[in-house]
Amino acid sequence: MNSGPATPPGTFAWPRAFFARYGAGLGASVLVLVGFWILALVLVPQLAMADFSFRPNLPPTEQGGPRDVYTLEHYEYLVRGGAGGEGEYNTVDLAVLGRTLLAALFVAAVDLAICYPIAFLLAQSAHGGFARLMMVLLVVPFWLNEILRAFAFRILFGTSGLVNDVLLGVGAVEEPMDFFRDNVALYSGLTYAFVLLMVFPLYNALEHLDKSQIEAARDMGASWLRVHWRVVIPFAKPGISSGCAMVFMLSAGALATPQILGGPSSLWFTQIIYQWFNTGNNWPRGSAYAIALLISALVLVLVAMRVFKVRLRDLGK
Amino acid sequence: MTSTRFAGIFLTAFVVLFFCYLLGPLVVMAVTAFNSSAFPRVAPFECFSVEWFGVLANDVRLVDGLANSVYIGIGVVLLSVPIGMAGALFLTRIPDRAKPWYYTVAVSPILIPGVVLGISTLVFWDRLGRMFGAGDESVFYDGMFLTIVGQTTFVAAYCLLVFMARLQRFDATQEEAALDLGATPGQSFRKVLLPFLKPAIASSGVLAFLASFENYNTTVFTSLTQETLVTVVASKVRHGINPSISALAVAIVALTLAGAVVYEILRRREAGTGAKAAAGRNVVSSKLGNPALALFLLVCVAGIGTVYFAGTVGVEECKATVQAEKRRRAQERIDALEKTLQDGAASAAPEAPANPGETIFAPRNLQPATRRPTDEAAPTQGEGRQTNNPFSPDDLAPNGDSPGGQTSGQTGD
């Protein structure tokens, strides 16, 4: 980004410098591509969805007609429930939203706990062939998509799956356990799905940590725990926060894994959104639910960043 | 000293456990792909068979989905690589104050849940189409187009990150030198910047294709009536599982592995060819004579041949043996049951038939057999459960929690 002294100080001078560097044709195509992406793919669709979520669910012929007015009915439905439930709260959907966000936090925490040692090892003490082998082994499971990985867990955790066979074999349980109903399968599947997304930001951050810092702390008599707490973790904070933010957002927004591994009685919030679009045939309400998910997840991330004193620009590094 | 050693042992154990967690499910799945049992399982490994790969290849829905996935992937690559490159170039040329804002907006699609991106794409193009009064056949309601556009939203952000990483190492004075020496901006782009960005173009292209190929959350909303490989697999898995899905996973890992190895060999050879060409050697002979590539191909062919041979020859006999064994075991079970029933009747205890042999068998297993104690009916019943049509849904549900499957799993070889 610091590519030379060519950026002039004035705000309105930069387009001229931009076209001077890239020429009319190339400069215009860069602008068109970026404009198309940012406007037509990123910003306006989000705004369209937000707008749509404030409109009643009308058949196509009536859209834009006199009944197409702004309304809060879909958000009201999420909070208050359907008609007749006045004064009550829509406990079912709100509970699902709360549980989804909590479970996503839990998944991010578990991923951080299991990936931190691996990333530290990979960045600080593994060398040559061993490090390369670890890298390959880390990446191989992610050649498969989310669905096939969830499928593997379904085989593993089935009533006659390997886990139950082993548990029954060693006599730990009498009856095969139902891992799906207890959401054990779902949580392990989600944790598994985002391991790589946690390892790489951590690894990137830890790779730049100067070993002599650790050695200095050790020489001063700090215990390993203290070295990590006072030296390594503060240094890796940007990596930790971007890893956690990504894992949290992606598991809160996961759809395939909960569809495949979720218990029959516990829904993930994305599944409710999916239902409004598919079987419920109420797109505005689905949009409203999607926005509720997006905003509540974003708010949680921003609050966590404020609490842990992480700046937005540190994410994604 | 001891504490460091203890920590070392602990860390080693942790690494081993971690990789077991990472690779164990895949190994289990791979094994089930070669097991002839109609329910994907490892424990009673019945016969080594490649039949599930055949089922896979003959599945029209899956093959159509694969074709759609490839088209969409190509479309996404063609759209998101240029966008990612333009986005990265744009970032280097805007005022410093605007950079964080632009960066936040550009990278946000990575953090936004895929479901939300899919919905917003769907809603946006639907409204746009309505604004233009477009019909259902128009591009605004075309699943392929919508999927390409929807996936490009976030895939372009991945590409942007790849290009940014590469551009950070770019020496801008090269470009300035070209411009100073009289090159037009276009020439300096083509001759200086583009060659420098070539590796980033290649890797972001591969990344974009893979990200598109394996996407589900966005695609499931935008694809409308179209199906991609991933949505087909998802609906199959949701409606009941069978080993052909495992076979698909094995095929994907094998193909990717082969692709990675070939890529690595080609890359090394390219590096080597330069040196050889400089030494005046014939390029063709070096192509044919590359021992590593030849060896790799040989090993692949031999491996696939062996697996295919082992998985097709003798499978029928093996299956027959397994079936006979199952029939025998079912018969034994029925005999034992009848004996218990008779004993119960002999002792004239009224509660005895209610739960006879509970210590030996799961209680639910008893009911069908007690209802049909005749010698002929029972074996077929026991056998039918194991060898149902793999696609019939009721094969999967009962197997999932069938105590019969459990018992045979426990007492099995």
CATH classification, class level of one domain in chain B = Mainly Alpha
Assembly state here?
A: heterodimer
Give the terminus-to-terminus CA distance of chain B. Answer: 47 Å
Helix fraction bin of chain B:
over 70%
Structure description:
The complex is a heterodimer of chains A (317) and B (413). Chain A is mainly alpha-helical and 317 residues long. Chain A has two domains: 12-44, no CATH class; 68-314, Orthogonal Bundle (MetI-like fold). Helix content of chain A is 68%, strand content 0%. The longest helix of chain A is centred in the N-terminal third of the chain and has 39 residues, at 14-52. The model of chain A is unreliable at 1-8 (pLDDT under 50). By secondary structure, chain B is mainly α. Among the domains of chain B are: 59-241, Orthogonal Bundle (MetI-like fold); 330-411, no CATH class. Chain B contains 18 helices and no strands. Chain B is extended. Mean pLDDT of chain B is 74; it is low at 280-288 and 349-413. At the A-B interface, helix 1, helix 3, helix 5, helix 6 and helix 11 of A face helix 1, helix 3, helix 4, helix 5 and helix 6 of B.
